[in-house]
Amino acid sequence: MISSYKFPHLLSMATLLLLVAVHLHSSAAVAVVPSTEANALLEWKSQLPNRSRALFSSWNDSSSTSSGFCSWKGLTCDAWQSVTGLNLSHIAINGTLQGLNFLSLPNLTTIVFINCSLSGGIPSTISNLSKLTTFDLGINSFSGGFPVFLGYITSLQYLSLSDNYFTSTIPGSIATLSNLT
Predict the structure, then answer these.
(1) Using CB atoms within 10 A of its CB, is residue 158 exposed (0-12), middle (13-18) or buried (19+)?
(2) Taking the CA of residue 82 as centre, how many other CA atoms within 13 Å lie in the half-sphere pointing to its CB?
């Protein structure tokens, strides 16, 4: 039988363990199987024009297992081997972002594609990247309406879409992003 003296001590220990578990869960990266991320990137590469694919020679099936893909050109990974950054600036990709499955890259904090000859629209699935802090697609050929959904990525601290061909005004939702610097 548990004495009344020990019971409050056990209850407070259980509460402490619960609080620690909640804290660890809320601060941890979203668990992703590395091959899911690698496959999403390889699929996007396969949809690029042939000469653009050659620019990504380090992106290949043989290095897509385990954490090998974290050494691919332009990628940054965290301690859990999950992609947190895509920086492919000044590479003449000559393609679109439409084939890149951003839902398979939930831990992205940084997307930088400056001067990459990218065109088309910006995929709305980017709005699901709740950890995204830096988003720079400057000096490309993106067109169409300004991506309204960017105004709902509250984690954004830096946003640049300069020197593109958007046909609409910047939506008011962008002004509500309190973390932008």
Answers:
(1) middle
(2) 17
AA letter at 16:
L
Pairwise CA distance, residues 65 & 62, whole Å:
7
Domain boundaries defined on the chain: 32-176
CB-based burial of residue 61 (10 Å sphere; 0-12 exposed, 13-18 middle, 19+ buried)? Answer: exposed
Q: Which fold has domain 32-176?
A: 3.80.10
- Each residue's pLDDT expressed in tens, for the chain with a length of 181 residues: 444 445 444 444 444 444 444 333 334 455 566 689 999 999 999 999 999 999 998 898 876 555 688 999 999 999 999 999 999 999 999 999 999 999 999 999 999 999 999 999 999 999 999 999 999 999 999 999 999 999 999 999 999 999 999 999 999 989 999 999 8
